[in-house]
Task: inverse folding
């Protein structure tokens, strides 16, 4: 292995692969991906359902098929990679990793790209009381066991949370002969994509209980049942008297994803409190100029295609930085307002075009998206509906932004 | 029939400490444990504090043994490679009423001969613990209150006992005790009868049932539930010491302290129950923790919870630590009333019990080859870069990190499985190494740990359990 690279990428999932492709296409010579799993592809390797690639390739692929395309492209372009390798520390221009073959090593990079993805919220984080039996899995862990390790997690299941993986796993369990009694969602709308609600729940007659949550887990050794109660839509507190026991041996949790930023925080990079990812500009550059970040480590995306697009862009700019071709300049903040929970990038270089991604705080019909520069409207667009589960975007041009001190994205 | 000199019933902290103490003598010792792993029930779900005994009831056996035990831990932790730290405790008073109680609490500490307890002003306490409620008026400082890894304490004691010749029968329940001519002669178990000269009842929560086998159940045990939160290592509001509330007549109250591994621990509740197997948490109990602890530490952020758990204290009725021998029942020792101070007291209880047995006819001499030292599994997360590199060079499996949150390697998991009294389950691996105890709670490493356990034990993945029989993690292959 070389000791000095142009670009080192932490993570070989959809973000890391696209970033590597982007960096190579932009002219970076030596690009290294460091991946902790036994293969490249990341979470895509366990996403054996279709629905990937519509935006990127104009055809519907499974997760592994989608990953293959990027892996092939990256390898054809000469990207190097290390598998089974955990990164322990990220510096401004270095990555410390460990694996079986090299032991503990330090690789130097002119720029570093963080592409660690995200992890699932756990039972502890959602504070579900009850016993602690076997049979409580996050939806993603169950997906790995079933799709990659050929191990079935249970026979009768309840799913808490209507995230995309939860809904996809409701269908997957059903297809493999398990009975899914219900998907309980504490909010009054599904957390994931509408298409998953239709294709994974409705098409399989799996009951979706909105405004419901699991209030108790029962069973001493293995899950024997869960108690589901209706919640008050305003307070989200369970309504006494609505508790109902669902006898099952498995509870899957699909209660949200959290960007995986232990390395980022340890490197002293500023983390945004709403996205739980690093603050970036439109080049996907963090507050440390040599460190870039892209994909779900920055903010949780709903489509792999969006991750790829964003990450390829991040890879290109990281390569430019490595080659000394990304000038530092003035930056202005982007501000969410009205029914906008966050805007990513959180700051932009106003002299360059930028695409602003944002999520709504709550579902709304007939909403208007407006972009304002120092309070002055520069664009406006009417949406049929906006949903927190689906990311939206607007593009801004340098001529509209020039001279402004801040940029606001508003939904009303 | 199997023959032994001493049967110890229970491999919690007391049973394990007893096993190790007995292993210093030329005796054949057998320990029965109904659970599949070491650590009993109460010994593995508690506040993980090594107490000083400052607040025990003066003059009691509990006071005597807990106070004696505390200074023993520096050496025991070192010998057995158990993480242990003397971080100290504070007992802050926020109301005039609480403040007025401080002299009496200090006097109690003096009566218990814990002479290093000191008064601190409110300003001093705030300097020591900046996240305290600023209305603190003053309080006590108890410097030798300490924290430990409770799993590794039990495992360390038991492993070292086993390395010194003690037999452990795990997953084996005592179902009866045979008495002949006024003395015990054998123990009946789910794995057959064991002839023995001596029996020690260290069954904790179930010691009343075991005592019932020999008609010495002149007391009964009820579980007193204690629910806890464990917060993320990165939680916004931390404490550096054990912050204890001023006790009330009913309970010692809910505390906040760091764990030996850097998480924050908040709790426990104290709820008297009847079912000794009910380890469930409940919304009311958890809510009461939030309400009480935030009075002392207003910034405590329970949204940073990574898990919650429930432990059962063995509440003796009538209460009090009792270590009994009987005129009409030779060679039987009954230990009862080991409650929240039991983890601390265990090592002194063990010495007291063995001495009591020697005084009452047990004939034994010391072993010439007793080895007090246990080398634990290397803790990769705590090693320097040089030590890590050396370890991987020796065994490349230490280069494969399986649990990313707690930085636990495949090499460690294999060692924990294959060592004396090794891990047999997902929880067994977790308790020994912390794999799955971090913020993702096994979301990442869980599927990988199942694979490694199955491979190393030569069993199929669907036979891998979380802990006890019936807790199988999987239901079979998806496809043949």
Result:
């Amino acid at each position: 292995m070389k000791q000095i690279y142009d670009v080192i990428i932490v993570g070989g999932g959809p973000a890391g692969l696209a970033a590597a492709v982007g960096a190579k296409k932009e002219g970076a010579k030596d690009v290294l991906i460091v991946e902790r799993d036994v293969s490249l592809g990341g979470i895509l390797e366990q996403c054996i359902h279709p629905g990937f690639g519509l935006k990127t390739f104009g055809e519907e692929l499974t997760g592994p098929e989608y990953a293959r395309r990027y892996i092939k492209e990256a390898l054809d372009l000469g990207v190097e990679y290390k598998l089974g390798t955990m990164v322990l520390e990220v510096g401004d221009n270095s990555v410390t990793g460990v694996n079986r073959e090299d032991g503990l090593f330090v690789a130097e990079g002119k720029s570093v790209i963080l592409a660690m993805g995200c992890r699932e919220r756990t039972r502890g984080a959602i504070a579900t009381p009850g016993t602690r039996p076997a049979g409580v899995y996050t939806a993603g862990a169950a997906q790995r066991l079933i799709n990659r390790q050929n191990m079935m997690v249970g026979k009768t299941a309840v799913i808490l949370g209507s995230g995309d993986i939860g809904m996809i796993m409701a269908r997957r369990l059903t297809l493999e002969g398990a009975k899914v009694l219900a998907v309980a969602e504490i909010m009054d709308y599904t957390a994931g994509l509408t298409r998953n609600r239709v294709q994974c729940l409705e098409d399989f007659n799996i009951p979706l209980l909105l405004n419901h949550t699991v209030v108790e887990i029962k069973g001493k050794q293995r899950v024997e049942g869960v108690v589901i109660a209706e919640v008050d839509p305003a307070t989200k507190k369970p309504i006494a008297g609505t508790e109902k026991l669902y006898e099952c041996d498995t509870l899957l949790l699909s209660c949200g994803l959290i960007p995986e930023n232990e390395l980022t925080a340890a490197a002293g990079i500023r983390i945004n409190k709403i996205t739980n990812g690093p603050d970036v500009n439109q080049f996907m550059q963090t507050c440390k100029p040599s460190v870039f970040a892209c994909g779900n480590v920055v903010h949780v995306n709903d489509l792999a295609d969006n991750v790829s697009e964003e990450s390829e862009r991040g890879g290109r700019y990281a390569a430019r930085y490595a080659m000394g071709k990304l000038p530092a300049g003035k930056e202005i903040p982007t501000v969410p307002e009205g029914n906008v929970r966050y805007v990513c990038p959180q700051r932009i270089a106003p002299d360059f075009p930028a695409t602003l991604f944002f999520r709504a705080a709550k579902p709304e019909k007939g909403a208007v998206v407006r972009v304002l520069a120092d309070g002055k409207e520069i664009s406006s667009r009417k949406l049929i509906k906006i949903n927190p589960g689906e990311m939206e975007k607007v593009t801004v041009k340098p001529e509209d932004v020039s001279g402004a001190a801040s940029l606001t994205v508003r939904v009303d | 029939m199997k023959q032994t000199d001493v049967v110890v019933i229970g491999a919690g902290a007391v049973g394990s400490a007893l096993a190790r103490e007995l292993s210093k003598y030329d005796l054949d010792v057998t320990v029965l444990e109904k659970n599949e792993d070491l650590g009993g029930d109460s010994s593995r779900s508690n506040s993980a504090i090594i107490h000083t005994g400052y607040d025990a009831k003066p003059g009691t056996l509990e006071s005597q043994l807990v106070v004696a035990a505390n200074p023993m831990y520096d050496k025991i932790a070192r010998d057995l490679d158990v993480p242990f730290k003397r971080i100290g405790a504070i007992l802050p008073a926020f109301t005039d009423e609480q403040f007025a109680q401080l002299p009496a609490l200090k006097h109690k500490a003096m009566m218990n001969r814990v002479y290093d307890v000191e008064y601190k002003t409110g300003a001093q306490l705030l300097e020591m613990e900046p996240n305290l409620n600023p209305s603190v008026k003053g309080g006590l400082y108890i410097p030798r209150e300490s924290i430990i890894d409770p799993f590794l304490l039990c495992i360390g004691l038991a492993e070292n006992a086993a390395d010194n010749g003690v037999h452990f029968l795990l997953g084996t329940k005592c179902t009866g005790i045979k008495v002949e001519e006024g003395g015990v002669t054998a123990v009946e178990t789910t794995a057959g009868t064991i002839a023995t000269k001596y029996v020690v009842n260290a069954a904790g929560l179930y010691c009343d049932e075991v005592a019932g086998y020999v008609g010495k159940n002149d007391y009964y045990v009820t579980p007193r539930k204690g629910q806890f939160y464990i917060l993320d290592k990165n939680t916004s509001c931390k404490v550096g010491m054990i912050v204890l509330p001023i006790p009330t007549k009913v309970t010692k109250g809910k505390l906040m302290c760091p764990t030996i591994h850097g998480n924050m621990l908040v709790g426990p509740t104290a709820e008297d129950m009847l079912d000794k197997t009910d380890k469930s948490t409940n919304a009311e109990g958890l809510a009461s923790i939030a309400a009480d602890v935030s009075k002392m530490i207003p910034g405590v952020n329970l949204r940073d919870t990574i898990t919650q758990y429930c432990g059962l204290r063995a509440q003796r009725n009538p209460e009090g630590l009792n270590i009994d021998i009987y005129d009409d029942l030779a060679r039987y020792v009954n230990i009862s009333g080991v409650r929240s101070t039991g983890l601390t007291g265990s090592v002194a209880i063990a010495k007291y019990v063995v001495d009591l047995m020697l005084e009452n006819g047990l004939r034994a001499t010391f072993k010439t080859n007793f080895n007090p030292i246990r080398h634990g599994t290397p803790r990769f997360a705590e090693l320097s870069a040089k030590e890590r590199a050396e370890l991987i060079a020796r065994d490349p499996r230490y280069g494969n990190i399986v649990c990313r949150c707690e930085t636990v390697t495949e090499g460690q998991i294999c060692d924990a499985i294959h060592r004396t009294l090794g891990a047999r389950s997902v929880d067994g691996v977790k308790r020994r190494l912390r794999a799955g105890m971090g913020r993702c709670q096994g979301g990442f490493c869980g599927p990988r740990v199942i694979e490694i356990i199955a491979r190393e034990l030569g069993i199929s993945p669907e036979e891998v359990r979380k802990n006890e029989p019936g807790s199988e993690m999987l239901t079979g292959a998806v496809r043949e």
Chain A has three domains: 1-119+257-323, 122-255, 330-412. Chain A touches chain B through 51 residues (CB under 8 Å). The first helix of chain A runs from residue 14 to 25. The CA atoms of residues 50 and 273 of chain A lie 33 Å apart.
